[in-house]
Amino acid sequence: MGVTRLVLLLAGVSVAAQAPRIGDINFYGLRKVAGDKILSALEVKSGSPLPPSKGAMEERVEAISGVVDARVEAVCCDGGSVALFIGIEEKGAPHVDYRAEPAGNATLPQDLMDLYHDFLSAVSKAAQVGDTAEDLSAGHGVMHNPAARALQEKMKGFAAEHLDLLRDEIRHGPEPEERTVAAAVIGYAPDKKAVINDLQYALQDPEDTVRANAIRSLKAIAVLAQKQPELGIRIQPTWFVEMLNSLVLSDRVQSTDALVVLTDSGDPGALDLMRERALNALVEMARWTTLRYALPPFLLVGRMAGLKDPEIQKSWAIGDRETVIRKALAPPPKKRG
């Protein structure tokens, strides 16, 4: 996922006041409940105006028999329409638990909070002119846009000088916004190995923006690990895989992107864990109609099917997702005794 879409998801940007039209409609978490039943309860379809109340939509879905919880996200914008993502948790379905809110009194200095907000503003301005390219090969983000890149350098300096402060915030900060900033800035620390455990801890934070920034920081470190294996950096895939069953869209999308990086060179352990814990979730996401969101999970499904990336990309290019999905869903061959 690009920086622009990340900022939109994390900031919870509201849709335009004049009720945009719904374009693609994507579901996740469906096992027994049919998508048509959800759309009927919401009284929406592709092309209809987006209802004004997210909360009211979620309440309608939660009233459906068998639904424990629901989440609705409208992602802007494609040709003037929004992509609608409707997630549910059914009774007896996988459930992801997160840590309780920290009860400590850690806090971050205001100058760091201002720095991070300035960075988000710079990214937003860069997006307006199409300058969102970002290099992750250093183990942290380095944007092409000069203004945003200069602010990243300042975050790098802060992380080098105040690592203990950021660690304390992640574990004991009572303010979700400050933990969100800490999860982003700690990824700029010079010793990437030293912050992996801190970021893995942040993956279990009760606030989804904290988790999203932690995933993004770990993804950048994973890029460095792929490019420089001699560093011996190892990121465990466990929590990424668990979050593929999350009700929160950003958990699923960000974790999928990170797992694509982790499995670029194979990693049979990660692929086996995905097959065991999240195959159905990934298949469901690989069938999404919003293509930019469907491609990363489709790559993972293909890799679980034992296919090489060129084969997966060829099937994607010709619009044949189901052949790859069937291979992934097929029982593995029995081992001979």
Low-confidence segments, given as residue ranges, are 1-16
As for the number of domains, it is 3
How large is the count of helical segments?
A: 16
Largest sheet: 3 strands, mixed
Percent in strands = 5-15%
Structural class: mainly alpha
Mean pLDDT: 92
Round the Cα radius of gyration to an integer and report it. Answer: 20 Å
- Spatial order of strands in the largest sheet: 1-3-2
What is the succession of H and E elements?
HEHHEEHEEHHHHHHHHHHHH
Spatial shape: globular
**Count of beta strands:** 5
Helical content class: 40-55%
Distance between the termini: 44 Å
Plain-language structure description:
The protein has 337 residues and is mostly helical. The protein folds into three domains: 3-90, membrane protein fhac (Ubiquitin-like (UB roll), Roll), CATH 3.10.20; 100-235, no CATH class; 236-337, no CATH class. Helix content is 54%, strand content 10%. The chain contains 16 helices and five strands. It has helices spanning 3-11, 35-42, 54-62, 110-128, 146-161, 163-172, 176-185, 192-202, 208-227, 238-242, 249-262, 268-277, 279-286, 291-304, 309-317, 321-329, and strands at residues 21-28, 67-78, 81-90, 134-135, 142-143. The chain has a three-stranded mixed beta sheet. Strands 4-5 form a two-stranded antiparallel ribbon. Helix 4 (110-128) packs antiparallel against helix 5 (146-161), helix 9 runs parallel beside helix 11 and helix 14 packs across helix 16 (321-329). The chain is globular.
List the defining traits of the structure above.
337 residues, mainly alpha, Ubiquitin-like (UB roll), 3 domains, two-stranded antiparallel sheet, 16 helices, 5 strands, 10% strand, globular, disordered N terminus
